[in-house]
Amino acid sequence: MTSRAARFFALLLGVAAGPFLAGAASGTNDISLVGDSDGSVVRLYWIIQKWPPGATGFEVRSRPIDGAGQPSGPWIVLTPKPVAPGTSATGDLQAVEADAGERGRLASKRQSILSTGKLKTATFEALRSAFDGDPSLPVSLALSFSKDYDLALITGFGFVDRSSANRGPREYGLFAVPNGGEGDVPLAALVVDAGKYGDSQLNVAGPAATAEPGGIRVSWSLDAETARRFSVATFNVYRSEASAGSTVEIGSVDAPQSTPAVTVGITDSGADPKKAYVYSVAPVNAFGREFPSRTRITYSPDQALVPNVTLSEPKTDPSGKVVLSWSVAPGTEASITEFQVESAQVPSGSFAPVATGLAPSARSFVDGSDKPSGIGFAYRIAALRGPATAVYSAAQFYMRIDLPKPPMPQSLKAELAQVEGGTAVHLTWAAQGPDDHVTTGYALYCDSVQAGNLVREAGIPLLSGAEYYYMPGILNGRHMTLGLAGVGDGGQTGPVATVALDVPGSIPAPATGVSCRRDDPNSPVVVSWQYSDPGPIAGFRVYVGSTMVAGEDSLGPDKRQWSQTISDPRSTFAFEVRAVSLSGAVSMPAQAHYSTPTGGTVLAAVENLKATWAGTIAEPSISLSWDPDSQAASFAYAIDAKLLGQFGARSGLATSGANSASVSVGDPKRSYTVRMWPVGAGGSLGPYADVTLMGQGKSLPPASLPLIYALQDDDRGTEVQWNWDYPDAPGLAGFRIYQDGAVVANIDTLPRTARSWTSGPLRAGKKCVFRLVAVGSDGSESEAGPDRTVLHYHH
Question: In the chain, how many H helices and how many E strands?
Fold first, then answer.
């Protein structure tokens, strides 16, 4: 039964959900009918599995049955008006109860239950809609009506027959209104034989009592057809000592629901297997009334142990198959020759074998047959003790429910962020939409175990809101893919949205050895390069000036050359080659220039480019100067304010013949790199030149560790290796490296010629922050670049 069904029924009747009871007869798999008689009246109630199309109510009919069990007369309508389910406080009870006194009692009870909130008002339309929307809703009705038959009458699911025609065996049928039955075939039918309830003719078959480790096992059998005919729901079991003593009730057992006869029973844990006892088994109908007839079962201490099989609650594996497991009480398995798995559709199906011939050592089985959603099934295990003897486990209920899938999260993004405790991946996504009534949280996925293989992060609880800071176990030096999926209240997950992220250490290395070749002005330009980084990349991009002319879709990771005929009459071309990671991260550019060898204007790089501070404190600027260049029509520049090789947009600077200019900047205490290009008459760019201006008060250019580093293993553990670029500036004494704020390398080991350093072994599970500064001969430190964080979690 689904949680939705349980909630609805609890709202209507204020009772807990439970299984179907035995004793129900059915004409179809959609409706069950239960009946009882005390010899003067017949009490009926029905369970609706699926609402009949077009039905607005029901009517009850009956007809006589002859000695051979065949109908001997026509159907006679018993209900004075159609019975329509509902719980209105003013509903007419005349359709279900002819006795005026009983109707008054029922009306008072209904009002009392409604006033206390144990029963909620529900219209016929609401009830029918609930049945149509959730086929598992009726699973608990039988248990509730058997505990309190008045509820069946109050809610419009029952009828009391007080007519004189109910003497002797009669067949009762339930018909829909206004459609009726198909050729007098009822929706459900039940034979009630009032005369059988006053004698002792109903006895169980195969009674037995045997010792087992937990006490004495009392067992018997009764076929489901007999149980339905007499509305047998349960059995009460009593015990008395064979010599003397009072009789005590030891428990009750549900009646079987299949044909042919099956063995049921109960273990008497309070009995002493060394003593002799007399047990009696009394059938109980669906209304809780015990039959006067009892079956006598004797036990003597010398009876052998029989298997005691316990079936666990069925589970569903990820592929949708039913997984069964069972156990056998120690000391009782010796007589088992094989196991058999059986199942039956609830409520009216018969048990049939699913698997036979399982070895005596078997304790599990996977049922690969298709189980439709919303249909209940019962499983049981049979322990065979030879070709004709079997002991059955108690049945377990199973129902597969296909819950609606949450939608895929939208606009998933990921970026690195510094948080307390280290570097995290900051995930953001679109907030849950107003039409999304399924998602109750989000599950996080990551390919942290194997690149490209997304696995749910089981240690992270369901996420809520629209952002999350995630700290994976390994962050450095890798390309990462993360995923997010919505999760419903039943644990069902929707499709996974993914996002790729390059973390520090995974930015692709730049290409090297870029060169250009053109045989003549009408031939294609051929650009070649080299690349030796072993990390996976998506390919390369080629730019002419600032325009991309080829991408990774045509220049895959194995390409090392590009050619194309360019009709542009410009005499000089500036080419850039950039490597592209799997997630689209682009490397630093590798540049080459080509000048036409057969005449035309050739642009040369700006020469003798110099920079000095100018302007005021409030409005600082950089004054640039260079050697005049008569071939350039104008000049352009771009600024790198972080000294990371990341330049801003290119802007026009000066016209032909100029050899100086001024550009505005924001902070005179910061250091800047200015890149300058000559521009031809047709807009072509010549080779660029760079100049770095240190912040005011600084004697050395800033020093910075690169984004890219290497991890290497040796006998001592895992170490990080840094390589950096730095000019041979006047007054440079060497370099100093800080790790987590403490000096770990100084100018004695990093002199002015040093451009590489390897750390000591990194401790697993520790975040390390590194910083590089240049040190002058006067002991002063240069401006430091960004901190570089390394997260290392294993050797």
Answer: 6, 51
pTM passes above 0.70:
no
In the three-class reduction of DSSP (H, G, I as helix; E, B as strand; rest coil), residue 127 is classed as: helix
The residue written with tokens 């950096």 in the block is 724
As a whole number of Å, the CA-based R_g of the chain is 43
Q: Which has more pLDDT, 464 or 681?
A: 464
Specify the 3-state DSSP secondary structure of 383: strand
pLDDT tens digits for range 385-433: 766 567 888 888 887 767 788 999 999 998 877 666 566 788 999 988 8
Burial class for 533, CB neighbours closer than 10 Å (0-12, 13-18, 19+):
middle
Looking up tokens 């994976």 gives 472
CA distance 297 to 209: 7
Identify which has the larger pLDDT, 539 or 230: 539
Condensed to tens digits (0 to 9), the pLDDT of residues 5-20 reads 333 333 344 333 222 3
| Residue 731 and residue 778 in contact, taking contact as beta carbons nearer than 8 Å | yes
CA atoms of 29 and 363, how far apart (whole Å): 32
Q: Report the alpha-carbon distance of residue 495 to residue 576 in Å, rounded.
A: 40
On the CB side of 655, CA atoms within 13 Å amount to 0
Over residues 327-338, mean pLDDT: 78
Please, which residues bridge with residue 11 across strands? none
CA-nearest of 207, 263, 223, 252 to 395 is 263
Of the segments 243-247, 292-296, 769-773, which one has the largest average pLDDT value? 769-773
Phi, psi of 298 (to 5 degrees): -105, 150
Q: Choose among 552, 463, 478, 439: nearest CA to 794.
A: 478
Classify 427 as helix, strand or coil.
strand
Q: How far apart are CA 173 and CA 42, in angstroms?
A: 13
The region, left, alpha or beta by phi > 0 then psi within -120 to 50, assigned to residue 718 is beta
**Cα–Cα distance measured from residue 328 to residue 336, given in angstroms and rounded to the nearest whole number:** 10
> Residue 16's pLDDT is what?
30
What is the edge-to-edge ordering of all strands in the sheet holding 660-664?
Answer: 610-615, 620-625, 660-664
Q: Assign 498 a pLDDT band (cuts: 50, 70, 90).
A: very high
Is 53 in contact with 34 (CB distance < 8 Å)?
A: no
CA 372 centroid distance within chain: 21
